[in-house]
Design a protein that fits this description.
about 400 residues, mainly beta, Methylamine Dehydrogenase, Chain H, five-stranded antiparallel beta sheet, four-stranded antiparallel beta sheet
């Protein structure tokens, strides 16, 4: 196999590259129990940002008025559950769990002094009583999509949380196919149908007549979550399996989905690290990895995704379900919030930088024909390598 080597000079200490690349720890809160999901909320009255931290026994509300001195201002107890997922609409947060009590509705209107919660667990005609779920998403119209519930075979339950704030109203069930996670925008729903290993795309513009537009099996056939690029043309997926990549797909035509790239962190290739959730902020990916922390990747060229930032909250070995559960990047301040299962909440600053890409084509000097199997490598522990395909093209960075 032919090999092409490129050298790059870096003005950073390589010993620090993977410990702290373009991310800075501002504060950390330790908990006496394990954590799970993380979301954020901004008070519309005073602009104070809050972290909404899922724990095994409830939801912790943390003021980030001073990001270097994060303070828990309320704890809302709930059913004992390893899994929680939290989203917000207006002055309310909506939290599911996998054990009991249905949907926790958190009233944040008078934060930080008076934060309260109620539970919504209706008996839905033809479906039964909703009590548990795995995930929730709320779209830009105020429709909540509850995934992996105990009814409708785990298919989505669509709920109106905008008409009467704080009082959810059931709208319709989606197809009765178990979904582990869900993302919806512009009335197009991306379901992570984990047990089939599929990202399935649905038209939900008519909630009473939902139709499938397309389907894509993800690389490790265990589709955990999906997030969409800002322009709506690319979907990014995770498979919750050791060594699985972040998949990037052109979904501009759901009937003809095209794989663009598979991203893995360079430092832990083949080390059994498991990706959990991917989010998109502008055209960067913010990814939580068990045992590998929070990672930022430049996805402005989705066919060649490059890591540009990281903060590892877990200092143990690679592999297994320890370390970072969630990474939340959507606060106006630009903070990135990480929940580490056993090590608490990490409040991080992030500097978003562009990758340096190295792309080209390798051809035979005599015949001019493309050479397959040539290796392009940048001399840096931080860099991706690439191997040319049939067309001689390589993409690294």
């Amino acid at each position: 196999m032919k090999k092409i080597v490129f050298a790059c000079l870096f003005a950073v200490s390589l010993g620090n590259v993977f410990a702290q690349l373009n991310m800075t720890l501002l504060d950390q809160i330790d908990y006496t129990q394990d954590l799970n999901d993380i979301w954020g909320w901004v008070d519309p009255d005073d602009g104070i940002e809050y972290a909404l931290v899922g724990t095994v026994t409830g939801v912790s509300v943390v003021s980030l008025a001073d990001p270097s001195n994060a303070v828990e201002v309320e704890f809302l107890p709930g059913a004992n559950s390893t899994w929680r997922d939290i989203k917000t609409w207006g002055n309310y947060a909506y939290c599911i769990n996998e054990e009991a009590n249905g949907l926790m509705v958190i009233n944040l209107t008078d934060a930080p002094n008076n934060i309260t919660a109620t539970n919504w667990s209706p008996n839905l005609p033809g479906l039964g009583t909703y009590t548990t779920a795995h995930n929730i998403w709320i779209d830009e119209f105020g429709y909540a999509y509850i995934a992996g519930a105990n009814i409708n075979s785990g298919g989505m339950l669509i709920v109106d949380v905008f008409s009467t704030p704080g009082s959810p109203q059931f709208v319709a069930p989606a197809p009765a196919v178990y979904s582990h996670d869900v993302y919806t925008r512009d009335n197009i729903m991306y379901a992570s149908e984990i047990y089939g290993g599929n990202m399935t795309i649905y038209d939900v513009s008519n909630k009473q007549n939902i139709t499938m537009l397309g389907q894509q099996q993800t690389p490790y056939v265990f589709t955990h979550n999906v997030w969409l690029s800002d322009d709506g043309n690319v979907a990014f997926t995770t498979d919750e399996k050791a060594n699985a990549p972040i998949g990037a797909y052109d979904v501009s035509d759901p009937d003809n989905i095209i794989e663009l790239d598979q991203f893995r962190p360079v430092a832990t290739l083949g080390a059994s690290v498991i990706p959990h959730n991917v989010h998109v902020w502008q055209d960067w990916l913010i990814i939580s990895y068990y045992t590998d922390g929070g990672i930022i990747a430049d996805a402005s060229r989705p066919e060649n995704i490059i890591e540009v930032g990281n903060w590892d909250s877990f200092l143990g070995g690679n592999g297994g379900y320890n370390g970072a559960w969630g990474a939340y990047p959507f606060l106006p301040s630009g903070l990135v919030l990480l929940t580490d299962i056993g090590n608490g909440l990490f409040v991080c600053g992030a500097t978003y930088v562009r990758a340096c890409w190295l792309e080209g084509i390798v051809t035979d000097a005599v015949t001019g024909l493309p050479i397959q199997g040539a290796s392009a490598h940048i001399e840096s522990t931080q860099a991706n390598a690439a191997t040319t395909g049939l067309n001689g093209v390589y993409k690294a960075g």
